[in-house]
Amino acid sequence: DLDKPAADKKLTKMTINFQCDPFTWDIDVEREKGIRVRDVLEAIYSAFDLPLTFQERSLIPHRLRAECAKAFKLRCNLAPVLPIVQQRQGWKRVDALLHETIFRGLAQSKRGGWTLHLSGTT
Known about the structure:
Elements: E1 13-20, E2 23-30, H1 37-48, H2 54-59, H3 62-78, H4 83-89, H5 93-96, E3 102-108, E4 114-119
Parallel strand pairs: 1-4
Antiparallel strand pairs: 1-2, 3-4
Helix pairs in contact: 3-4
């Protein structure tokens, strides 16, 4: 149920850390009435739907750029809009994940921080 609380105790603010070399991104989730599963999933989607900045794109190793380009092309072709619409938006963070886009969950550290876990199809 997407409207259930995202955690055992009521949270109104949450920062989710995601690391995938060479990137580290923080995803902030806020909801005064308490964060729901829906809010977490929407925040994660929105965070990876952002265009890569010039600096982020420059961090991608040359050996991985062709794979990112393939991921970009696949995303554009599978989008529910014309591919050209997606292509004009350029590479997004999701393209830098190189198909490691399956949600595997969140883990909470003993200090209270949250970490996002993703994987590929295998």
